[in-house]
């Protein structure tokens, strides 16, 4: 479907829908800077079901719920703003897909499919648990290493502090002895 140049161009497509929930999937080429691309979904009584003012993305999905067994008009409106002086056409290619959405209110279960899903979930659960256990064991080893290293560094720090304290005391005593000797020498020289 091509939407092209005229300042306003509208294309409407009719669908007869049986499903209560319907998915409308639109894929389009890139948006043009001065172009508005509008979507309207109306029923056969011309009542508005859904509307989207400006579709800018290249893929767009919308879910709507018409009345059962209703004819629905899906209208795409292409508006080119400020193009009065431009003679060249603006083209936007659009692919439209209308499909029913699965009705989850009345599920139909396949026993083989459920069994396969349970097996897959159990397998994935076991793999996840094994991966978590591996990571936890690695973390536990790292924590043991860090605790041991912290104890060694604390012991080294305490030993260094003790040695440093004794060195300061020894240096103080050596300084006092040096001062005492210097004073004794000066007294002896002064007596002569």
UniProtKB/TrEMBL annotation:
It comes from the Eukaryota. Residues 122-156 form a coiled coil. It comes from Wickerhamomyces pijperi. Residues 8-189 form the GOLD domain. Keywords: Coiled coil, Membrane, Transmembrane, Transmembrane helix. The keyword Membrane applies. This is GOLD domain-containing protein. InterPro entries: GOLD_dom (IPR009038). The chain crosses the membrane at residues 164-186. Pfam families: EMP24_GP25L.
């Amino acid at each position: 479907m091509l939407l092209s140049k005229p300042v306003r161009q509208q294309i409407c497509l009719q669908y007869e829908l049986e499903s209560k929930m319907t998915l409308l999937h639109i894929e389009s080429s890139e948006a043009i800077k001065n172009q508005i691309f509008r979507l309207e979904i109306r029923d056969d009584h011309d009542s508005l079901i859904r509307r989207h003012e400006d579709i800018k993305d290249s893929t767009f999905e919308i879910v709507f719920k018409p009345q059962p067994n209703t004819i629905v008009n899906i209208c795409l409106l292409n508006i080119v703003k400020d193009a009065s002086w431009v003679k060249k056409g603006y083209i936007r290619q659009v692919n439209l897909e209308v499909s029913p959405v699965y009705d989850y209110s009345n599920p139909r279960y396949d026993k083989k499919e459920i069994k396969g899903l349970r097996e897959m979930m159990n397998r994935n659960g076991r793999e996840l648990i094994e991966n978590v256990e591996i990571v936890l064991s690695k973390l536990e080893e790292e924590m043991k290493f860090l605790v041991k290293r912290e104890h060694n560094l604390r012991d080294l720090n305490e030993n260094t502090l003790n040695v440093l304290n004794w060195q300061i005391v020894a240096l103080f005593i050596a300084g006092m002895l040096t001062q005492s000797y210097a004073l004794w020498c000066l007294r002896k020289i002064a007596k002569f």
